[in-house]
Amino acid sequence: MESSARLRDGWPSFLLVWAMLLVASMAILQADLIDGLHIVPIAATLALVAGWLLGKSAFSDRTAHLFAIIYGLFFVTWLVGTTLPFDGPWRERVFDLVGRQVEWLQKLVDGGTSRDGIVFVIQTTAVFWLLGYLAGWFTFRRTYVWRVVIPIGVVLLSVVYYYNGPKPLLVYLAIFTLLALLFVAVTYLAGEESRWRNESVRYDRAIQFDFMRAGLLAALLALLLAWSLPGMKASASFGEVLTDAGGPWRSFQDTWTRLFSSLRSYGAGTSDPYADTMVLGGPRTVGNTLVMDVRVSEELPYGVYWQAIAYDTYVNGGWRVVESDVEPATHFPDDGPLNLPVNLGREVITQTVTNYLPNSSFLYAAPEVLSTDRQMLVDATYDEQGQTLVTALRSRFILRQGDQYQVTSRVSTADATSLRAASTDYPEWVRTRYLQLPDTLTPRTLDLAEQLTANSDNPYDKAIAVRDYLRANINYNDQIAAAPEGVEPLDYVLFDLKQGYCTYYAAAMAVMLRAQGVPARVVSGYALGEYDPLAQNYRVRAVNAHTWVEVYFPDYGWIHFEPTQSIPVVERPSSATDRGTAEPSVPISNAELFGLDEELADLERADGLLGDTANQADGGLLGDVPWWQVALGAALLLIAGMALWAGNRYNRGVEGDVGRSYLRLGEWARVLGIPWRAAQTPYEQADALVAAVPQGQQPIRNLTRQYVLRLFSPARATDADFDPHREWRSLRPVLLRQSVVNMLNRSRTEKK
Q1: Among 3, 334, 551, 718, which residue carries the largest CB count within 10 Å?
Q2: CA angle (246 as vertex; 244, 247 as ends), nearest 5
C-alpha cells in the first residue's frame, strides 16, 4: 500500500509509530539486561525524526539513506559514549568504542567469550536507530505500514521471548499490538483521504471515526485471540517441529551466551535456564517461579540433585559441552533402560515429575537416569565398550505446563571408605575428556591446587580438601561483577575478589582437581527444593537453580560434591556399615540457603506466592505490574473510550439529519469506488449503491426515500415512523465489511 499522504495527514501516524518504538524500548529497559540501555528510547526518537524529515525531503532515496547512516553513526557514538565509565576526551571514547566492537567481532570469528557489556549497548542502540529511521521513512516516504510494524514487533517479541525473569513483559506486547493495528487503520485512511483530495472527491470527515472505531474493535479482537493461543495445547507434530529445530536453536543459544555473557541472566533463551555453554560472567538474578514438583516414595539420601546438563570442557572463561560427531539419539520407552556403565554403590529410585515451565525441554532427574516413560533425545558420547555417557536428556516433544513424566534413576550411596580405596586406573575416555585444562590458567591457581592436595594420597581426600578450602575462604555472593577484560575469572575470584556463587565454586573445584590428575566435571540443574512429607514430593523453584561438581571414581561412576558455601555439605557415611544409620540430607529450604527466606516469607504473606498450584505461583495477567504501567494502560483505555464516545456523538448528529445522512451515503459510495454522479437522480444513485452492496438494500432505499421527501414533498417532511439511527445501525456494518473486502481485493491486484 502506497500513498502520498502529506504532513497534515501524518500526525496520528507519527504519534502511533513513536508510541510503538517507545513501547519496544521500554520493554528492553524493564528487562534490565544490562546497565546503559536508558539511551535506547532517545536513539529511537531521534531516528524517527530523521526518518520523518528525510522521508518528507526532496532528496533521492540513496542520498537520504546516506545521510541517515552518517546521522546514525554520530548519534549512536555520542549516546553510547556518554555511558562509558571514564571521562576522557571524545577522541579517546570513539577509539575505545571502535576497539571494543572490533575485539567483539574477533571473538565472534574465533569462538571466544566476550564480557564487554558496552558492545551490547552499542548494538542495541544501533538496532533501535535503524528501527526508528526505517519507521519514519516507510511511513512518510513510502507508506509501507507492515515494513514499519513487523521489524519493531520482531525486536519486541525477541525481548519478551528471551527474558524469563519476574517482571511481566507481555503487557508491552499487548500495548504494541493495539498500537500497531490502530496505526495500520489510520495510515490506510490517511492515504485514502489524500487520494480523494487529489481527485476532488467530497467526503465526510466523520468517516475517520468509523475507521478508528473499526480499527479499535479489530485490535481488541486480535488481542483476545492472541491471549487465548498460549493456552492451546500443541499437537505432537508441532512439538516434533520444535524439537527438530532444537539443534540449530541450541547452537544459537551457545553463541549468544558466549558473545553476551555480561547480560544479567534470567534463564535466557527459553524457559530452560541452561544452554551448552555456561560462562563465568557477572551477577545473576533468580526469581521464585515454580519449576517442578518431584514426587518420590521417601525422602532421598544425601547428595541427590536434579540434573540438567554436564559440562566437560573449560575454555575462554566458561564451561562447554564438547562437540561430538554423535547426534542426539532418540530413545523410546519400549527400548528399555539406557546402556549405562554398571557402577557399585547405587540405589534405584523412581521420580514422578510435574513440569510447570511453559516451554521446557530438559528431563530433570536424579542421576544416573536409567529410563523414562517419555520419548527422549539423549545427548551423549560412548566409551570403549559402547556404553552411554550421558550429557543431557531432553524430551522429544516440548514439555508444557502440567505435563508429567516418570524417571527411574540409580543414585549413589557410596561411603567414604570405599571411595578412598577406589582405583585410579582411569579409562582412556575419562583421561581424554575430564582432565582437560586450558593454557590460560594462572600459575598461582595451579600452585594453590598443589598446596591444598599435598597431604592427600587419594582422589577422594583431594576432593574434600579443595571443597573445604572453597567453603571456608570464598564468600557466597551472586551479585559479583564479571572479571575485568583479560583477567582469568577463576584467578580473579580465588585471589582478588574472594567472592562468588555456585558456578564459580564448582568451576574452581573442578579445575583444581583436574590440575592434580583427578577427573572432574561441572553439572547444572536444580537443588532438591523443599520436601513435603505429606505429599511426598519436592517443590522446586527457580531459586533452586544450582551448579555443582562431580568427580569420577572407577567402579563407582560420578560422585557429587558440594563446594558452595551457602549449601550444606554432603556428608557420606564413613563405611558401608554406617549406611543404615547415616543422616539424610537436611530438607532445608533453598530460599534459606540462598539468603532469601525472609524476603520470600514476606512475599508469601502478602501475595500468597507459595500457593499449592502452578497457576497460583505464576500469578495473573498483570502480576506485579508497576503502578506506572497500570496508569499507562488506564490512560490508553480512557483515550480509546473518549474517542469512541466523541465519534458516536458526532455520528448521531450527522445521521440524525436526513440531508447529511444522504450525503454520507455518497461518501461511502466513493469509498467503495461506485460512481455517484450529480446528473443522476437520488433513486439512480441509490440503485448504483444497492447493486454494489445488495445486503444494504433496505436501509439505502429508506434513507433515499426520506431524502426525496424532505426535498420535494409539499410538506418537506419525512415519514413519521422514520428513524435514521435505526437505518444506519443496520447499514454501517455492511458498508464497513464491503470496504474491507474491496481493500483486500485491491491489495491482491496491486501485488499481481
Answers
A1: 551
A2: 95
State the burial class of residue 661 (Cβ atoms within 10 Å of its Cβ: 0-12, 13-18, 19+): buried
Burial class of 106 by CB neighbour count within 10 A (0 to 12, 13 to 18, 19+): exposed
Cα–Cα distance measured from residue 597 to residue 604, given in angstroms and rounded to the nearest whole number: 10
Sequential DSSP letters for 382-401: E-TT--EEEEEEEEEEEE-T
CA distance 363 to 305: 13
Q: Which CB contacts under 8 angstroms, 24+ apart, belong to 637-645?
A: 640/216, 643/209, 643/212, 643/213, 643/216, 644/213, 644/216
Residue reference for cell 556518554: 82
φ, ψ of residue 313 to 5 degrees: the values are -125, 130
> What's the pLDDT tens digit per position in 534-585?
888 999 998 899 999 999 999 999 999 999 998 888 878 777 665 443 333 3
Residue 450, preceding bond cis, omega within 30 degrees?
A: no
CA 152 – CA 686 distance, rounded (Å):
45
pLDDT value at position 371?
Answer: 92
| Highest mean pLDDT out of 41-50, 254-263, 398-407 | 41-50
User: Among 558, 578, 581, which residue's Cα sits nearest to residue 344?
Assistant: 558
Sign of CA dihedral 342, 347, 348, 350: negative
Tens of pLDDT, residue by residue over 637-680, are 666 566 666 666 666 666 667 777 777 788 888 888 888 777 78
CATH code that applies to domain 246-595: 3.10.620.30
Please give the mean pLDDT across all residues of the chain. 79
The pLDDT of residue 206 is 54
d(CA 525, CA 309): 7
Q: Which of 251-255, 463-467, 494-498 has the lowest mean pLDDT?
A: 251-255
Q: Which amino acid makes up residue 554? A: P
What's the length of the chain? 752
Give 694's DSSP letter: G
pTM for the whole structure: 0.61
Across 347-356, average pLDDT: 93
List Cβ neighbours of 336 (8 Å cut-off, separation of 6 or more).
371
| Sequence ranges of the domains in the chain | 7-201, 246-595, 631-751
What DSSP character marks residue 460?
H
Q: In whole angstroms, how far apart are CA 52 and each of 47, 56, 65, 234, 640?
A: 9, 6, 12, 43, 26
Contact present, 413 and 346 (Cβ < 8 Å):
yes
- Angle between helix 724-751 and helix 697-712 axes, rounded to 10 deg: 120
